[in-house]
Amino acid sequence: MFANDAGARMPLDGGWLCVEEVAGGDLSVIHEVEGRAVGRRSLREHTGLDGRWAWPRLLHGPDGVPWLLAVNLDRRMAFAFRFVGEELQQGHEARSVFHVEPAEDGTFEENLAALADMAASRDGDGVELALTADLAGHATRRWRLGAPAPEQLPGGLMMIDGSRLADRRNARLVLNRPRKHPDNPLFTPGPPGAPDEVRVFNRGTVMIEGGTFRMWYAASQHPGPLDTLWQRIPNWQQLMHVCYAESDDGIEWRRPGLGLVEWDGGTDNNLLPNLWRMPIIVKTDRSPVAGEPYVCTEQLFPATPEEAVLHTSADGIDWHRRPA
After folding, report:
1. pLDDT tens column, 242-278
2. Among the listed residues 142, 136, 138, the one whose alpha carbon sits nearest the alpha carbon of residue 95
3. Is the pTM of this model over 0.85?
4. With 0-12 CB in 10 A as exposed, 13-18 as middle and 19+ as buried, what is 170?
5. 31, 104, 199, 311: which has the fewest C-beta neighbours closer than 10 Å?
């Protein structure tokens, strides 16, 4: 056990909220009143996530309710949980430390670094989370997590999940867990010379239109000689671009030749014009450009939080850059 607000034990409803380590790397969240456990929950059971849980931190959040922060060491991610009423809410605000490693064959991996430590503290009307990676040259990363607040929408109050409630009794949120397809990975890099030869990323958009699955995804080109890579390309994301694919069932995908962007001396490829790296596509009747219902926003290159661009399209294929 640890001291209040510094570790894994704090007052709650005339008793204590505690977190204990369990054999096998699990954590047990306990509500203890008069020396008796009136509620106990395995964090592994509560989240459905396997792996080793560590570094529990309990503190009073900015919204006046207890927060539990803990790291899943195998997933290399930190999760935040709120204890609302009598129940521990589902984890959210997952954070981790990314790093990029080039390989000798010209490919590169964007991965989560193994974590060496976590700290959590109250920060005004938020909670500060600090993660230290077990990786030379990486400084401690800090994030500020704000307390969730109800959103007043036209017609009433919209409750997205239990974390937006001050108390919750005789009701529970049930989420159906997705199952991975046995043939995964369903979509892999293209053949040699293709614009997605090196990597396809799990960033993008899939939507169904007229019975057809449409996918806009991030891809990577070959970086060239590795010995001069970081001199030629200071930001590895400069190697990214956006491609398009279609499927009749969401399992078997085809890359149509769009003829819009020149690549390796020809235009028989599935590259999309103007889009850069993380294609979050929305089809909306509120598009700022008449007749172009497909909208995509993204940061300029090099990426900065302050600058963004807007793209619109009539068909989701031929994209035009607009002032944002």
Report:
1. 999 999 999 999 999 999 999 988 999 999 998 887 7
2. 142
3. no
4. exposed
5. 104
